[in-house]
Amino acid sequence: MVKIAFNSALAQKALGKEVPVAVKDPELASAPSGNEGSTGRCLLTLLGIAFILSGLIVGGACLYRYFAPKRLYHGVMQFNTSVGSKGESQPYYLPQVEEEVEISDNTAVISVPPPRFRPGDPAYILHDFNRKLTAYLDLTLRTCFVIPLNTSVVLPPQDLIDLFSQLASGSYRSYLMHEDLVVTERIDDIRPLGFYIRRLCDRKETYRMQPRSSLPGGGIQKRSAEECFTIQHFENTFVTETKICKA
User: Fold this and answer.
1) Rounded to the nearest 5 degrees, what angle is found at the Cα of 115, between the Cα atoms of 147 and 184?
2) Is the model more confident about 149 or about 33?
3) In this structure, are residues 91 and 82 in contact, taking their beta carbons and an 8 Å threshold?
4) In whole angstroms, what separates CA 108 from the centre of its chain?
5) From CA 83, how far away is CA 239, in angstroms rounded?
6) Angle made by CA atoms 196, 198, 204, in degrees to the nearest 5
7) Which helix (H) or strand (E) is 44 found in, with range?
8) pLDDT averaged over the chain?
């Protein structure tokens, strides 16, 4: 009789083929938890990328305010000192106002140089059409004065561009209007006035104004004790002489 015997090692190897993969390879058995860790890392990476992109967008908006292309215009306007004399005969020589305006991002900044041969202060005038505010920076006093934007006097940005384009083609004769403003109170916190006025009036005394005609009695009783100065400028087809008085 012939006996058939199996090698124990071969038998164990054969039986090993039936062992589940998870039991044979501990690393493969733990694969699902590794996938969950990879997913978490991907989410953190995406959140980091989103945070960086948002920072770039905000930073780009801030840089745009400083480096966006600005349109600078120069203009000269002659005027008759008699109110409403636009269509009347005019003398041979007329006084004139010369200024530059920079228009960008729905604002207009007007640079008024010292007038020649007549009284008046050099100034920067900023019109913020978004916030409906106007700020006068008197360069002699180094003081800011803020008032609501007078849309009946100040042309909107595109109309201002059209006006200065006409002034560039030749002389322009017009008339003089008077604006009488009175200082009412000091502004201690200029941050609510917006980015542009805050930049113009930073570290300068800033006051709020209103038209004299809106004060009770027109403020006539205080005229003798007031300190007043004038700024001649134009943001329309006529020249405006703004008189600002501090009580």
Assistant:
1) 20
2) 149
3) no
4) 10
5) 10
6) 130
7) helix 31-67
8) 80
CB 120 within 8 A of CB 232: yes
Nearest to 157 by CA among 45, 73, 34, 229: 73
**First-to-last C-alpha distance (Å) of the chain:** 135
Residue 40 banded pLDDT, cuts 50, 70, 90: confident
Q: Which two tokens stand for residue 206?
A: 């800033």
Contacts 24+ apart (CB under 8 A), 112-116: 112/231, 112/232, 112/233, 115/232
Residue in 147, 161, 65, 69 with CA at minimum distance from that of residue 108: 161
| Residue whose C-alpha is closest to residue 80's, from 94, 92, 67 | 94
CB atoms within 10 A of CB 129: 17
**φ, ψ of residue 227 in degrees (nearest 5):** -105, 115
Distance CA 183, CA 146 (A): 9
pLDDT tens-digit profile of 143-176?
Answer: 999 999 999 999 999 999 999 999 988 768 899 9
**What phi, psi does 162 have (nearest 5°)?**
-65, -40
Encoding tokens for residue 127? 């019109």
Q: 155, 61, 58, 152: which is closest to 103 by C-alpha?
A: 155
The residue behind tokens 């020249």 is 239
User: Would the pLDDT of 56 be above 70?
Assistant: no
**What pTM did the predictor assign?**
0.69
CB 51 within 8 A of CB 44: no
| Helix, strand, or coil (residue 61) | helix
* Residues above pLDDT 90, as percent of the chain: 51
